[in-house]
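The pair is quoted verbatim below.
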Amino acid sequence: MAAPRLSTPGLRVLSSKLRPGRLFTPGSKPFCSSATTSRPLNAQRLAEKLRARKKEQKTKKMPVPTNPVQRRVQELVRFTQQLQRVHPNVLAKELSRGILHQDKDLVVINKPYGLPVHGGPGVQLCISDVLPTLAKMLRGHKAEPLHLCHRLDKETTGVMVLAWEKDMAHQVQELFRTRQVEKKYWAITVRVPLPSAGVVDIPIVEKEVQGQQQHHKMTLSPSYRMDNGKMVKVRASRNAHVAVTQYQVLSSTPSSALVELQPVTGIKHQLRVHLSFGLDCPILGDHKYSDWNRLAPQKLPAGTLKKLGLHQTKARYIPLHLHARQLILPALGSRTEELLLACKLPHFFAHSLHRLGLEMPNQDQSKGSEARRVEAQ
């Protein structure tokens, strides 16, 4: 005999001949009725089944792609997700293995891909969280936490400077602020910048973008625009920041390039915005700034996809190919000579260079015989 129908929202009572696992919809709200209290066993079995199904979905393994490039893309995505779930001690140990330089004032690390520097919405683990643990690993349990001297974007890899003392961190931050630190980034771009070397000097402003969710993006705020073939001066935005980037193409093919970038200023997402909007050559894997109007994955030329061995549907998994290649710190504290710090490319970056036919340049030209060079092995 069928159970009586109830009008409780989110509740559906079926015939007793059907499986008890179909009594409720997954989004049902808590309720209390005589129908549930009279069948505690079914409710318990239902809860156990839902828990087992949820656990099965979490532990279900993704099919392994046969294409080796797609397999590496999947491994990188999984690795960046794992970085957010590991224990802080594990992450600190991993950072200690990638130390480029260490002295009594500074510790320079090789920042991994996909690891945020600061906490925020949705961030489970970041570099600043593990600085106390990292300091204890390097100097013992009584060591004071290390201090951040600057920051890199979550998807950016490469050289990152930490300081033992807060005063030293402030001194290094002042060097960055007053543009006394020479920074070099390497990026793989979609299309080739023209001319092959130059300076992008266009202010940048943060604007609100309408879409599925309201969010903000950095974009250009040029001082002039074309109006009926004439150049017209635009009223400057109060919120615009001066942004200057020097660039040089190191290697190129008809559809892509390896570009060296030297930011003169340090505005948020400056390199990505100047390349995407200023030079019309977005960074490979830059899904945020490759297209202003859509939230779709970066549209890549057919030739580039073929060289990478990917389909367009997999383009959203391509990591951002932006690497903090080199820093030159001037003499500071007890150090009487400048310190040149260079960091090798991550594996995925070097492999993309090979697949795209881009040549590794003869880099690391020394800025002086007294400059001390340190490189990650």
User: Anything to note?
Assistant: The two ends are 74 Å apart (CA to CA). The chain is about 25% helix and 25% strand. Residues 40-59 form the longest helix (20 residues).
